[in-house]
Amino acid sequence: MSPTTDRTGLEGGVGRIPIMDVQPVVDGGRFPASCVEGETITVGANAFREGHDAMGVHAVLLGPDGAEQRVPLASVNPGLDLWEAEVRPDRIGHWSFRVEAFSAPYESWAHTAEVKIPAGIDVDLVCAEGAKVLARVLTEVEDGTRPRTDAPVVQAALDSLRAPGLPAAARVAPALAADLRALLALRPLREGVTVAGPYRLIVHRRRALYGSWYEFFPRSEGARFDPEQGWVSGTLRTAARSLERIARMGFDVAYLTPIHPIGTTFRKGRNNTLDPRPGDPGSPYAIGSPDGGHEAIHPDLGTLEDFDTFVGRARELGLEVALDIALQCSPDHPWVREHPEWFTVRADGTIAYAENPPKKYQDIYPLSFESDYEGLYAAIRDLLEHWVAHGVTLFRIDNPHTKPVRFWEELLAEFDEKHPEVVFLAEAFTRPTMMHTLGKVGYHQSYTYFTWRETAADLREYLEELVEAAPYMRPSFWPTTHDILTPFMTSGGRRAFALRAILAATLVPTWGIYSGYELVEDVPRPGAQEQIDNEKYEYRPRDFTGALTDGTSLEPLLSDLNRIRREHPALQTLRTIRFHETDDEQVLAFSKHLDAAASGTGALDTVLVISLTAHDRDAWTTVHLDLLALGLDPEEPVAFEVEDLLTGERFTWGPDPYVILSATDRPAHVLRIIHPEES
Ligand SMILES: O=P(O)(O)O[C@H]1O[C@H](CO)[C@@H](O[C@H]2O[C@H](CO)[C@@H](O)[C@H](O)[C@H]2O)[C@H](O)[C@H]1O
Question: Structure pTM?
Fold first, then answer.
């Protein structure tokens, strides 16, 4: 990042026109800001000058192809100094932008003329000053910095200013006319141009921001109990059959927990016990056996060819495949024998098992980056390359916060360079600084604390925090995972599962569920906040069809949510979220609004969600809508139509609708605002 510069100021000083607090800039420019292609982001700065002369501010975006886009910023709080513009970088790659602030002599003159000419003050002097300004505009035409087409309008205005015989108002009229103003608004005459930047901006593909993920253990899909042989594992081929159902529910990403060979040394048994029974398949996160490590496929699941077939089928159905990468090894992993230097050997010759306090992972060794960073880096890069070559386009990275951040910075930069389409999701449930820094160094997405944010106030506060972090961290909301089943979920049954799905799917653009959510699997292992008979340690075939038939499945709701998300680009955004007040502290109201240009559909798109946050009570309450945030005109007598996208009902509402929510039947309204021009 270069300091603010101009021709007259001190190097690194504020420059002729101070430009402060440029956004989006991450840590003063140490890390690039990011967004996705087509996403509307706000470029802003506080820019000001001494005195009262007019000034202007531009943002200049430089695309990956070297093309420049100049966008004027508007003063958004007149009298104060904030200038903003919405920009929409339209292709992936490395962009940059700079902010230019300048004195605007034409605007200063126009203001003087508008005050003095009607009052008959200094008419000749004002006209002479105006003529000087317009003469400079013509000079720019002559030296080629302004198009020739500007000349006739400017010349005519100049001639008029120099015609003393005319009445004063007529004399200045062409110089204040709309056509000349428009031309000079587009290309202002600028003085004292001061530049801040350039600042880096990385544009990722859309899936980095928006997508619906479905997580499952492939070995459970098609697993069966055979009275003779015991449990028979599902395979990639049987799992591929589940893809149709996942696609039918509208998910975009099929996320597979690790698919590699599983060690037998210190294998875990059912319910996280340390004494497995014969036939227990072990945790798929205990990676590596004599059958291979992170590049191999568990023989029970099939072959690499089966994996390719699986990916091919997913693609046919419009799904991308995400793979779980857990950088750790079972004691049986080939790396343990081949690369003892990649593990920390203690004084007694043993290797300590991995931990993520307070959790203990007795069946795995952590990797150590201390003695052969280069070698380990190359091995990890190669294994990721291997899966990219086999069609994986997203990686869910297990516990990235237990590896050096510098390692991720280097690795993610390399992938960004070679495979900008590949998206990395950080599974770092840890301290905020670590989570934020992982985003800053290149992670595209992050798991979040959503799972533990339950009240309306907490959710609102958390979303506000996430929006602030949006230039470098994109949240992914999961109501449960294979490791997390909170008391809220275990105490609320179907009501809790429905409610949290609605919130996760509408609050942020990326959400995901862990298989079995449809069936409301809500029984915890005593003393733990995760499921009993957890699939991590055993096979878990499920009867999804039966649940659909008997009407207990949440599949219809999940399908509706994903459909609504697809049909409403507003729900594919994070930064647009606005909150509305409600008279019930357990009711959360928020909306997302896109104008016609930003929605990509040519029409406004506004979605308003009014949701319970508690699962054990109903609510009758008034909501106080911020009409501007909904794209409605607060000055007009307001009655507008809304359509509930979950039920199809229509209501005519005013600014303070009274709503009735029921934890059992209607935990939330997910509404489309029908704008007057549509009805
Ligand atoms: O540490 P987290 O809670 O973020 O969970 C993730 O990482 C764990 C370690 O990979 C993983 O834990 C599972 O696998 C371990 C290794 O086989 C095993 O010891 C644990 O009992 C088991 O829960 C967890 O699944 C993953 O999401």
Answer: 0.96
